[in-house]
TrEMBL record:
GO terms for cellular component: cytoplasm. It comes from Thermodesulfobium narugense DSM 14796. This is Probable dual-specificity RNA methyltransferase RlmN. Its main location: cytoplasm. One of its GO terms (biological process) is tRNA methylation. S-adenosyl-L-methionine binds at residues 162-163, 194, 217-219, 293. Binds 1 [4Fe-4S] cluster. The cluster is coordinated with 3 cysteines and an exchangeable S-adenosyl-L-methionine. The active site is at residues 92, 336.
């Protein structure tokens, strides 16, 4: 009999498991604490449970982690993990070490169906959504690996492989497990969900009622250009996307981050600065300007550093909070847009947009 992964269970589901069998609810708190607070991944080591109860849990649930197939360390102290989920299923997860915090960039899908021009993940195609346990276990496995030397994980960003809004239910359940006060107790304010622009997902996220940070991959100031870069823009245009994002900002009381990768001669003109100002002026918005990271895209792209600095200066002068975000892990293909399970993939020929 295949056992259910323990990491699929919410706290309330674990309570129900116990009460359905005639046990007290507080057993759920004991077990959740052992796993998520005390980092014990063997039911037989949970000494405040009876041997019979430990046997029952061992026969019912699986506490195993995905295999860490490989790790690569960047010169900037970031790590990229290749996780083997079973059979021929792999994902990449990135650990980013900052001076005063640790961030994990996690995946929500194997591959991605969205097909953004500047992102490598879409080049490998889409295989499937990740299970709740496969999302939770990225955090657990990576933290377990780095804890002794670098400490615990402080921030979680859904900016790895896949579009989180296309695996909405599993992503939200995983977040609720990781933020549960009986377990890891992550603050939802330290969790970021990034979307390429799925407005229906943003609206659903608003209804969830958690103060999760929303990041939107904008990358263009006209529908014509954005539709070439990010195909979902043909369904949800810029004005509809920004309207939904502002509604989320007001409901969550969290400023929305608009990611903008500067691509020379594509989206970095003086007119783009003015249009970006006009789109975001007066909104609860923060702009992250990002240097393009080399990917498997068949479009030749580069970032003009002088232009990115001009964008930062002008947008701040217009009253729009703007920063330049320098991605970590680029030397190990672990930066934004680079996760692609690179072995066996060909980069293809270059073309122009």
């Amino acid at each position: 009999m295949n056992k259910r992964s323990f990491f699929e269970l919410s706290f309330s589901e674990l309570e129900k498991f116990f009460t359905d069998l005639g046990f007290s609810k507080y057993r759920a708190n004991q077990v959740f604490s052992w796993v998520y607070k005390n980092n014990i991944y063997d039911f037989m080591q949970m000494s405040n449970l009876s041997l019979n109860l430990r046997d029952l849990l061992s026969s019912s649930f699986d506490l195993s982690f995905p295999k860490i197939q490989s790790t690569v360390e960047s010169a900037d102290n970031s790590f990229k993990f290749l996780l083997h989920l079973g059979e021929n299923d792999f994902i990449e997860t990135v650990f980013i070490n900052h001076k005063n915090r640790n961030t994990i960039c996690i995946s929500s899908q194997i591959g991605c169906p969205v097909g953004c021009v500047m992102c490598s993940t879409g080049k490998i195609g889409f295989k499937r959504n990740l299970k709740v346990s496969e999302i939770v276990l990225q955090v657990m496995a990576v933290e377990n690996f780095v804890r002794s030397k670098m400490g615990k994980i402080d921030n979680i960003v859904f900016m790895g492989m896949g579009e989180p809004m296309l695996n909405f239910d599993n992503v939200i359940k995983a977040i609720k497990i990781l933020t549960d006060k009986n377990g890891k107790s992550f603050s939802p304010r330290r969790i970021v969900i990034s979307t390429s622009g799925f407005v229906d997902g943003i609206k659903k996220l608003k209804e969830v009622g958690l103060p999760i940070k929303l990041a939107v991959s904008l990358h263009a100031t006209t529908d014509e250009i954005r539709s070439k870069l990010i195909p979902i823009n043909k369904t949800f245009g810029i004005s509809e996307l920004i309207k939904a994002s502002e509604e989320y900002a007001l409901a969550s009381k969290r400023r929305v981050t608009y990611e903008y990768v500067l691509m020379e001669s594509i989206n970095d003109s003086d007119q783009d600065i003015i249009r970006l100002k006009d789109l975001l002026k007066g909104l609860h918005a923060h702009v992250n300007l990002v240097k393009y990271n080399q990917s498997l895209s068949n479009v030749r792209i580069k970032t003009n550093i002088r232009r990115i600095k001009l964008f930062e200066k002008m947008l701040n002068n217009f009253g729009i909070k703007t920063t330049i975000r320098f991605s970590k892990g680029e030397d190990i293909n672990g930066a934004c847009g680079q996760l692609a399970l690179l072995s066996g993939l060909n980069s293809g020929a270059c073309s122009s947009i």
